[in-house]
Amino acid sequence: MKRTTLARIAAAEQRRQPLMVVTRLVDGAQCLLDAASCEGELPLSAEQLAEARGLLSSGRSSSLSSAAGLFARAYVPSPRLLIVGAVHIAQALAPMAAAAGFEVVVIDPRGAFASAERFPGVQLSDEWPDEALARLGLDDATALVALSHDPKLDDPALELALPSALFYIGALGSRRTHEKRLERLRAAGLGELTGRIHSPIGLDLGGRAPAEIAVSILAEVIQVRYRGGRVETGA
Amino acid sequence: MQTDSVSLFEILQQWRAAGKSAALATVVSTWGSSPRPEGSHLVVDAAGHFLGSVSGGCIEGAVIDAAAQVMASGKPQLLEFGVSDEQAWQVGLACGGRVQVFVEPVE
Q1: Which of A27, A71, A77 has its CB closest to that of B28?
Q2: pLDDT computed for residue B95 by the predictor
Q3: Do B105 and A74 touch (CB under 8 A)?
Q4: In this complex, which of A2, A26, A78 lies closest to B1 when CB atoms are compared?
Q5: pLDDT tens digits, one per residue of A34-74
Q6: Are B36 and B54 in contact (CB under 8 A)?
Q7: Long-range contacts of A50-58 (CB under 8 A, 24+ apart)
Q8: Is the dihedral of CA A51, A56, A57, A63 positive or negative?
Q9: Which H or E run contains A220?
């Protein structure tokens, strides 16, 4: 692998941009391709290029069927979990999600909550949620959970999240809290999208401790990631 | 981008920047019950330090040995392990799968 190829893959990961490397297994010759360009020492036919781009768009790595001895490796953004509200449940959820392979960002403008002492080793943002989310970008490999219990933090996050490509949106709160939240979001013109919010949040595992709730939230995020769609969230 | 919290490509860049040789191993085909999917990576440096995985742990030793040869020769290798393979039995790929691993030098 050439140094420039290595640098391109590392940069694509950093910027959360999809990238594919096609390798000829007999000698290691490679080309790099994304949706717009294809470059490198390995020439691809139009048919091979089309097959490789198809794999890239679905995020799959595989040998090409249109040619023997060519392997296509898709690099797509790693799953990411944005947590709004640096609350007790977030303290349990952030390290669990990181262990499960998620890039985690905890967002809370209240410095007393989003402190390095409370979240050792966790990426923290002290921006307001709407600023943080606009900066971070809401792609389809990203999930968002609103845990703050404070409409001043949760609502602006949900207002940006609902029309976005996020693969999962969850909000903590009792049924009554959620009903009031839905009223506010309807008033903001987002009524048709509120069905995307998982609330009550998390799979119904029966636990009540913060760490137990974190397990149920993470389990639901993983379930939606692989099974897709709106999943019944239990009681 | 695999579901590892550390980027293997950042590690490779760090190793190369520090002047260490490095090799990249990739699962390029699987049959049967292989524990790691196609595209899974393992990175190895000249001292045999490694990160990532290409199996549940059964063939990593053999891949690291091959990586040392690849770093020395500068030529990639395509390795194959399977249940009928004496070497694979020795390294313990008893899970019934077959797997091909491409090992390439990193410039």
Answers
A1: A71
A2: 57
A3: no
A4: A78
A5: 988 999 999 999 999 999 999 998 889 999 999 899 999 99
A6: yes
A7: A52/A20, A52/A22, A53/A20, A55/A20, A56/A18, A56/A19, A56/A20, A57/A18
A8: positive
A9: helix A210-227
For B103, the token pair is 């090992």
Per-residue CA distances from A33 to A56, A66, A216 (Å): 9, 17, 38
Supply the range of the domain harboring residue B25: 8-105
Range of the domain at A32: 3-75
- Per-residue pLDDT for B3 more than 50? no
- Token pair listed for B104: 């390439």
Residue A11 contacts B where some CB pair is shorter than 8 Å: no
Q: Is residue A68 a part of any domain in this protein?
A: yes
Q: How far apart are the first and last CA of chain A?
A: 52
Which letter does DSSP use for residue A127 in this model? S
Last residue of a domain, one of A43, A75, A107: A75
Contact status of A65 with chain B (Cβ, < 8 Å):
no
CA distance A79 to B77: 31
Specify if B2 maps to a domain.
no
Q: Does residue A178 sit at the B interface (CB-CB below 8 Å)?
A: no
**A-to-B residue pairs, Cβ atoms closer than 8 angstroms:** 74
Q: Is residue A72 within 8 Å of residue A64, measured between CB atoms?
A: yes
Using CA coordinates, name the residue in chain B closest to A70. B28
Specify if B1 maps to a domain. Answer: no
Residue B98: helix, strand or coil by DSSP?
strand
Residue A101 to residue B4, Cβ atoms within 8 A: yes
The interface predicted TM-score (ipTM) is: 0.85
Burial class (CB in 10 A: 0-12, 13-18, 19+), A70: buried
Contact status of A63 with chain B (Cβ, < 8 Å): yes
